[in-house]
Design brief:
single chain, alpha/beta, five-stranded mixed beta sheet, globular
Length: 298
């Protein structure tokens, strides 16, 4: 919700379609859903409406047994999210995106990373056929919160387990397969907020119990911060804009947020960032993306 709100306010301030200024969009989890929406022609305002209207329904489970059930299975079912995504994306395929997209997931069957890539290279012949809804479900299947997404023999979960911040994924795609000189790249990296943490001294002693509540969060934050710093190292700090403000501990939880608080924070962050976004990105007009399809299926 925060990320969609930032993009919404930037479009209002700058009087432009934000996607018109970018050649490649990468996303993980909720960022993957936003990337899909942008690629399929939704405005940031429409994506924000999706979150505000459907979020409470996706994470609605008032069962008294939910806490006990959560010990052995996902906290929520995937059906409400699938239904909400279908309302927005319909039967459209991933290949109908008007932008180059890279969406992350992880295949626990093969124990390997999994990337959905639009057909922006002639060698990419499979992902474009997949329904956009399925791609969204795969990238956002957060372990313990939502069940995994079975797809063509793969068992896919949230890409955040390896690319919580997908900026390096985007950079790798650009300088590798797409052969873009790294010196010509400018990056807009948009997070989902992070809270202020104070690590207890007990973690220094190690042990399963002391680390039980911190291990996953530390690993995901470390990966995100590492990616942010690596990108700045490769393309230069002046060519990277990273927006990911801190919030008080506990203010934002994956399945429970205060809409007014996040929208207000997005307004504050976008107001400060608007001149920088205009200076860094709005002078570039991305050429129309022409996908590669097999000749027999064009």
């Amino acid at each position: 919700m925060f990320s969609a709100a930032v993009l919404t306010r930037l479009e209002e301030d700058l009087g432009t379609r934000i996607v018109d200024h970018f050649d490649l969009i990468a996303g993980t989890s909720t960022g993957g859903i936003i990337a899909l929406g942008l690629g399929l022609g939704l405005s940031p305002r429409e994506i924000l409406t999706f979150y505000t209207e459907h979020g409470p329904r996706i994470f609605r489970d008032r069962s008294r047994m939910r806490g006990i059930r959560h010990l052995m299975r996902a906290k929520y079912g995937s059906e409400p999210l699938a239904a909400a995504l279908t309302e927005v994306f319909g039967d459209r395929t991933f290949g109908e995106s008007t932008k180059r997209l890279v969406i992350t997931s992880y295949n626990i069957a093969a124990d390997d990373v999994y990337l959905f890539r639009t057909p922006h290279l002639p060698t990419l012949k499979r992902d474009w056929r997949e329904k956009a809804v399925n791609v969204a479900l795969a990238t956002s299947a957060a372990p313990t919160y939502l069940p995994g997404m079975p797809l063509d023999g793969a068992r896919l979960i949230d890409g955040g387990v390896w690319a919580n911040n997908p900026t390096m994924v985007a950079l790798t795609e650009a300088v590798g397969p797409l052969s873009v000189p790294h010196k010509s790249i400018r990056v807009f990296s948009l997070g989902t907020t992070m809270d202020v943490r104070s690590r207890h001294r007990r973690l220094d002693r190690g042990g399963l119990l002391p680390w039980a509540s911190d291990a996953v969060e530390v690993l995901m934050r470390a990966q995100s911060e590492s990616a942010a710093k690596q990108v700045k190292h490769f393309v230069g700090k002046s060519n990277v804009l990273r927006l990911n403000p801190t919030v008080p501990t506990g203010a934002v939880v994956l399945d429970k947020v205060n809409t007014e608080t996040l929208y207000g924070l997005a307004g504050h962050v976008s107001r400060d960032a608007s001149p920088t976004v205009h200076r860094m990105f709005c002078d570039h007009r991305a050429p129309v993306f022409v996908p590669y399809y097999p000749a027999s299926e064009e």
